[in-house]
Amino acid sequence: TTRAAMVAMNAYVMRHAESTNNALGAATIENDAREHDPGLTARGEAQCARVRARGGASASARGAGEVDGGDRASREVEVWSSPMRRCLMTADALARGLGVRFGVRGDLHEHGGCFRGARGGAGDGGGVVGLPGMTKAEMEDAFPACDVPMELEHGWWSPERGCESVRDAQERARGTAEWLWARARAMNALEEPAKDLYIVAHGMFIDMLFKTLFNVPRTSGKQPSLFCSQNACVHKLRFDVAEDGESVGLQMFNDVTHIPEHDRSGGSIEGLDVAYTKEGSA
To answer: pTM for this structure?
Structure first.
């Protein structure tokens, strides 16, 4: 085994469980029933129970030093969540299963940000009303196992921004990709212990992140290719840093084997396509 392989970083990227917006017949910004920061449906809650069980099985494998997901299960784990409620609920279930606390990163939120109204609506402002999102105190009160940075003390979104554009969201995904590579390089340099990262985010943001990591052209409007994620699915990325170059591999894609077939949801091409063609619909 080479040194590079020994310290390669694994990142397990998960989409949140089914939200009430996901369950709308047409979850677009034109739908009056759309919520700015929705919780989960009953099916989403059931998915979270399965996520927690999967985390518990992984924790047991790690404790016994067994092989988990193709790797020796002995490394430390970190769990990171988007600050949006649906992700916090999913990350909380995962972290409880793994037996760890979880952190919140403001850059993992879904495209659009936190807002009410419709982009492109009446008036120059597009009919959009920006909202700050949950504050640090609100998140830590609702989810005692989470740690929220002070930068999110008053909320994670700037109301004056209204609805984030696709281009701005893609740039944010680029920053997240750079953060992942920075962590992988630090582990390779033995500046920090080798860890597995769990990241709970959103379908459209995951698509943007993967396109960035795998050098797929990033465009707005109709998309020629999409990385579709079902609710509560797991993707596995492996970051290798070596003297002859760096590479990231997609070792597992849209794994929902922990979710019974009758409880699976999301992941359609049509749903993700609408999120791009009608900005703010994610």
So the answer is: 0.91
